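Support reply, case 0932

Customer input (verbatim):
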Amino acid sequence: MEHALSISLGFGLAAAAGFRVFVPLLAMSVAGYTGHLELGEGFRWIGTFPALVVLSTATVLEIGAYYIPWVDHLLDTVTAPAAVVAGSIVAASALTEMDPLLKWSLAIIGGGGLAGIVKGASMLARSASTVTTGGLANPLVSTVEVGASFLLAGFSIVLPLVALFLIVFVMYFVLKKLSRWLGRRQAPDPRTL
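Our regenerated output:
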């Protein structure tokens, strides 16, 4: 059961990294610093006061930058690979007492992959917002992403199994909508037959 909780914690934080890179790291830092989260060997530095200060500053700057027109798209480009790396790191730091090969395989494939999928979906949402509203709705998209990142990071630390269920539910919903949309786009027009 302990492995299931640490995997849920790691994957939940990785998904949160897909929305904002520094939010799950900050949540881990706060939880580690206050003693509410046991960090894996080699990752205890995340729970130190200097890390808490640096991650708080980075989080505020990242959140603020997403509200600046055009900078949000630039940040999406830069943070896409950073989200995958952050997703891998937060997943690895949450997977305690596990064989290193299994730990890093789960962290890179599961955590990094999940962060990349979430980041890709958020980039598509921002692009759709830019195309349909000329960028006027981008601050709303940014607000939803920040809220989702904080919510997911918090649930991951407090209720990791709920966070994992939430991720699976949302992914199912999104994939179902996407398959319907792709099915409609690929269906031949009956008037042209």
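We compared this against your earlier run and they match. Two observations from our side: Residues 2-192 form one domain. The CA atoms of residues 2 and 97 lie 9 Å apart. Please reopen the case if you see a mismatch on your end.
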